[in-house]
Amino acid sequence: MTSTLNPTRSSSAAKKPAHGNRAVPPRKSAITPRKSGLLTALMVCVAAYFLLPLIWLAFAATKSDTGLFTSFGFAFASDGFKLFDNIASVFAYQDGVFLKWLGNTALYAGVGAIGATLLATAAGYAFAKYEFPGRKALFSVLLGSIMVPLTALAVPTYLLFSGMQLTNTMWAVILPSIISPFGAYLMRVYAADAVDTSLMESARIDGAGELRIFWQIGLRLLAPGIVTVFLFAVVATWNNYFLPLIMLNNGDLFPLTVGLAQWQATSTSGGGGGGGAMFSMVITGSFVSIIPLIFLFLYLQRYWQSGLAAGSVKG
């Protein structure tokens, strides 16, 4: 049995372009050249705000005490390049106490950041993926704690640790550092989208427990957020000054922030061998103290990737 085709209809259908073949006009960008220029200028200002102090610090670390006050801040001094001499003086002063402070800082920042990252990741994952009684109330308390200034908690924290006989110990700096309300909030926001609920349900069907799902699936998908929280925690603990200042009175336990502040106080009070004789050492010590953070950031930035969960769930 044969079928006949209407030539008029077929020809008209052939002339009519298909919807999928129609050229779609390009959408106009919401960012005009004027807005783009303003955004570029804003980013340049932000970059200058953060980078200019570091550039000044790098130049200042190459100068002697005299060169600090007789040369332009963003240029080398005329009396020579003193960076390596300054570094040698920093590590040799007071029988190498700077190296001990550097080790203490690395210990406080490393242990505190690892603990803060684990707790923040677990808390954020639980807030994002589980329903339990009091969830909203606890999360509200978490948000409220972010708004509380650290100075307001200084006296209660000191009294608490004093009652536990933990003041003037390393634990007095490490234990408060592992609490990161902002890190938990950040991980909650990130886990809400990064960990697909259907993926968790598939794992439950396969017999995986909740702890196994968290360790083998959740942590892998949360890797960029984990790195972000870890870096925030490292920087916060590395630069922490007020907490170790009130908790510690043993110079052998000081971090770099408190130790360098003591050198600065000695320098300005005239006890460092003639007024400003220690300014170059304080500045060089500050410059050396930021180098580990720079290397850590450059090493971990490769883990800041998006779309780690792409392809894990089929549409």
Automatic annotation (TrEMBL):
Biological process according to GO: transmembrane transport
Domain (ABC transmembrane type-1): residue spans on this chain: 102-300
TM stretches of this protein: 37-59, 106-127, 139-161, 173-192, 213-238, 277-300
Lipid bilayer topology: Multi-pass membrane protein
UniProt keyword annotation of Flavoprotein present: no
Stored InterPro entries: MetI-like (IPR000515), MetI-like_sf (IPR035906)
Superkingdom of origin organism: Bacteria
Subcellular localization(s) per the UniProt record: Cell membrane
Chain segments carrying region Disordered: 1-29
Keywords: Cell membrane, Membrane, Transmembrane, Transmembrane helix, Transport
PROSITE patterns, A to Z: ABC_TM1
Biased composition (Polar residues): 1-13
Family: Belongs to the binding-protein-dependent transport system permease family.
The protein's name in its UniProt record: Carbohydrate ABC transporter permease
Species of origin: Mycetocola tolaasinivorans
